Amino acid sequence: MYFQLRQKKTNEPKNLSLKNPLLLVLVKIMSDIFTYIIGGKAGEGVKKAGEAAANLFSGMGRKTFKMDDYQSLIRGGHNFSAVSTSIDDIYSHYMKADLVVNLDDRSYNLHKDHLTEDGLMVYNSGDTDKGEGIGLPIDEISGNYSKSDLIKGVTGIAVLSAVIGLKKDELEELIEKEYSRGVEENLSFAKEIYDSAEENVENRFTLEKGDDDSPIFSGNEALSLGAASAGLDMYIGYPMTPASSILHFFAAHGKDLQIMSIHPENEISVANIAVGATMPGARVMVGSSGGGLALMEETISLAGMTESPVLFILASRPGPSTGVPTYTEQGDLNFALNQGHGEFPLVVASPGCMEEAFYLAGEMLDLLWKYQTPGIFLTEKHLSESSMNIDVDPSIVGWAEPKKFEGDREYKRYEMTDDGVSPLKFPPSEDVIKWNSYENDEKGITTEDPEKITEMHDKRRNKNEKLIVDMKDMETVNQFGDSGPVIFTYGSTTMSVREAVKAGEMKAKVVQPKYLKPFPFWELEDYMEDDVIVVEQSSTGQFASLLREKCNIVPKTVIRKYDGRPFEPIKLAEKIKETI
Amino acid sequence: MAEDLGTGAENTWCPGCGNFGILNTMKNVVEKLEEKDIGREKLLISAGIGCHAKIFDYLNLSGLYSIHGREIATIQGMKLANPDLKVIGFGGDGDAYGEGLSHLIFAAKRNTDITMVVHNNSSYSLTTGQMSPTSEKGYKGPSTPEGSIEEPLNPLMLMLSAGASFVSRGYAGKIEHLTDLIVEAIEHEGFSLVDVLQPCVVFHDDQYQKYNEAVEIIEEPAGTSNEAMKLTEETERLPIGVFYKEEKPVYHDEIYADLNIVEDKMTKDERTKQIEKILDERT
To answer: Which of A18, A377, B179, B253 is the most buried (most CB within 10 A)?
Structure first.
């Protein structure tokens, strides 16, 4: 395993790799990946500890990926955060860590197999007595502080600082930045931990500095910023994991961005406030997970009929029903593709990394306003709540401007046009603007007339056809790598596959359709003859079925995972290799 | 009456339907509002689904014909997007007190500046007369052939409990009174409910007679919410008018004060700068 060959200050002879040219290559390619895992109970600041580490790595100019694994509870249980960092691009956390910090016995037991061969385990000697690794009296030290549970998380950054050879004043600076609330106690605690750890772990690993200055964002934050860049005016949400942090983001930043955020009584209200707000011209986004979107489905159909361009975020978690609230799965693909009763144009797309989440949310808002129809931004917990670097330019995102009504002719909301898109006018206006959930005539008055029903169906279908023409000029499918076996994937699993290809030092063509409805079959004709591998997080292989239905691509193998956890790159690499 | 407020759409209400009274009232309302310099271009309407909702097609005003019970959420969206507009929702008793009840309670709770006009005929008439949330116990309809075994809701009491800042009842048979009531409701800053006794000549053929005998105009709103609640419990005589009225902070003002997200929208450049600030804070 290449993990053994990491650049180290300890007794590893530096010229080891030179004896074997192959190893030299491996060192060069992989030597800089460093993984840190911190585990403990909810309420011990584990998530924050992961975030602080990610910010430390990022501050060193390194690329970073952070995944938080937590349970649906507020105190107790087991949480962990896995943070992997590299000089080069990194698309996933690894579950083989160079440094594991366990704040309790349960974490020790769960993570003792998550070490690389020369990885370092630091545990809480106040809670664990079987320890292999370095025991620190975390309980004893934290007992002297007012928030004796919450402060334990500070252990992570203190130990990490010692392990990578940061000086105490550098640690102080980090604490002041990351743990500013109750900073005096945090500083004092961090120094105590640092002192107790220093002699055992000091400078065990050296992390090379990089020159990357891109910030770290979660997928939910990235998509929020992307939609904001496209002119979003309003975000409406009812809390549901893993979509809630979008609502929190806009509640925190709404004033500066002048984006209103609203948390009403239920998801049905969310969706209908959204449709109502589009009528006077507000650019609106809403979000939920599967259960919440199910409640919104009636209104997705309303948006299709009224031609209301609402962007719906579906952040998936394992189902059916309540399922496993804080974990990840791609079981909602068919649900997203088939939203809404009746026939109307619906756009469904799913981003393959955080940066793409930014651009795709902006692009979708823009596209939906162009075609006046609803769309679903499909993602999963693994992308929504994990974090990585994004390098984005908000100025190049579109501004969601619809076709507006001009001229002296009578205004008709559903005026027939060549592309099926009727020009918009917003109130207040001398003209009467009628949007209608019933089938209607051009003016928006209810109709049961057979000719008008047919005409309006044709109008909406026409929009869909023009949308497809537009999409043919857009980047609807990504391909990473240009030789080797073809691996089809989508959504957050794209990140796992890209990192697995790196970890397994494979050559592969990773094909990721960003748009899933209308499905960009025109981009995929070249792959029909290939032996295709599909990787997805669904128990029934919904994405593989979609490829078969839309492009007649029959995968040779479908690698599926449906235990709520994202793929681990090394394990996924092994699985892919088994199939080749 | 403002004759130009019709749309030319064929009216399909039953002859004698109480909804005609409400439609005519609304035309008067628009005229009265225009006298007060609230132009019709500033009015947005929505409706649920049912007999009442056809008013959307018959009134030549801008708006969105919504779905069952959701018009209460629809008009809140309109108002929050552009608070300069006056929004009026039409609902039936099935819409407002059944399917959309949660929206009504929460609109009252958060005091969004909307007006809900509920065409209350105590029956699901467009779906052939099933019992509704306000049908009397013993009501016979196709879903309750032996008579409803449920007690009716008291919607005004419910609204008062939810903290509604304007609670009123009108009668479709007293157009002048109803006109003033709806104008006052629209002018009220905050949530306003106008429950309208709307006779259904098909499924409740005794309603006109009953209401004509029992309605009694209240001259002044009750001084307290508790007194107003007592008024809602009267069944022998049926008080109509404003039961309760209170000045309270309005939801859209409380969110972002004077900001109108549609009219005062940032430019692309201004937004880009704000986003870059957020990006920079992380680097």
So the answer is: A377
Alpha-carbon Rg for chain A in angstroms: 26
Which domains are seen in chain B, by residue range?
3-258 (3.40.50.970)
User: Are A233 and B265 a contacting pair at CB < 8 A?
Assistant: yes
Angle between helices A267-278 and B101-110 (to 10 degrees): 70
Question: In whole angstroms, what is the distance from residue A511 CA to residue A525 CA?
Answer: 12
Provide the CA B196 distance to its chain's centre, in angstroms: 9
B80 Cβ neighbours under 8 A, 6+ residues apart: A234, A260, A262, A273, A277, A282, B112, B251, B252, B255, B261
Angle at A522 between CA A520 and CA A523, to 5 degrees: 75
pLDDT in tens, A114-150: 999 989 999 999 998 877 899 999 999 999 999 999 9
Of B55, B273, B231, B96, the closest CA to residue A258 belongs to B273
Residues 101-130 of chain B whose Cβ lies under 8 A from any Cβ of chain A: 102-103, 105-106
Q: Is B42 on the interface with A (CB under 8 A)?
A: yes
CB-based contact (8 Å) between B36 and chain A? no
Percent over 90 (pLDDT), chain A: 90
> What are A65-110's pLDDT values in tens digits?
999 999 999 999 999 999 999 999 999 999 999 999 999 999 999 9
Query: How far A261 CA sits from the closest chain B CA (Å)?
Result: 9
Query: Is B274 in contact with A256 (Cβ distance < 8 A)?
Result: yes
Question: What length does chain B have?
Answer: 283
**CATH number belonging to domain A477-579:** 3.40.50.920
A32-201: which CATH topology? Pyruvate-ferredoxin Oxidoreductase; domain 3 (3.40.920)
pLDDT in tens, A382-408: 999 999 999 999 999 999 999 999 999
β partners of residue A42: A76
What are the helix and strand counts (H, E) for chain B? 11, 8
ipTM surpassing 0.90: yes
Alpha-carbon distances of B256 from A257, A258, A283, A408, rounded to whole Å: 12, 9, 17, 36
What is the chain A residue with the closest CA to B99? A268
Q: Which two structure tokens, joined as six digits, stand for A390?
A: 């994004």
